[in-house]
Amino acid sequence: QVQLVESGGGLVQAGGSLRLSCAASGRSFSSYYVGWFRQAQGKEREFVSGISRSGGITDYADSVKGRFTISRDNAKSTVYLQMNSLKADDTAVYYCAADPTWRPRQYQYWGQGTQVTVSS
Question: Could you read off the pLDDT of 65-105 as tens digits, one per residue?
Fold first, then answer.
């Protein structure tokens, strides 16, 4: 089992950048696939990005391609989401998730989320 804690959210102006972190505790973090999701107020949760166990394969929602970059440091048991050129539509609670088994955009373990607010 793995526990996930997100950080790095906050208030930023449109066009700005933020870097979210997802710190994991528990053993064998490098054996987990990790993803980022977001949920805006009144909307369903949506997939943002995912990364393979080694970091060699990444996946992005069309809405964030070219603006967001996911990466991981297994030595630090941390996954990052670098968000650039932020838009008001990116405002949401961002969650990281992990799973030891590859299932496209589906994850078993979830963090509590971090709020990102983009002012226009």
Answer: 999 999 999 999 999 999 999 999 999 999 999 999 988 88
Mention every residue, 6+ apart, whose C-beta is less than 8 A from residue 79.
21, 22, 24, 34, 36, 51, 70, 71, 72, 73, 96
Q: Six-digit token pair at 110?
A: 């979830």
Tokens at 43, concatenated: 């909307």
CA angle at residue 38 from 98 to 19, to 5 degrees? Answer: 80
Residue with tokens 């054996």: 31
Report how far residue 84's alpha carbon sits from residue 66's, in angstroms, rounded to the nearest whole number.
Answer: 9
Look at residue 44 and tell me whether its pLDDT is greater than 80.
yes
Do 36 and 81 meet the contact criterion of CB atoms below 8 Å apart? yes
Mean pLDDT of the chain: 96
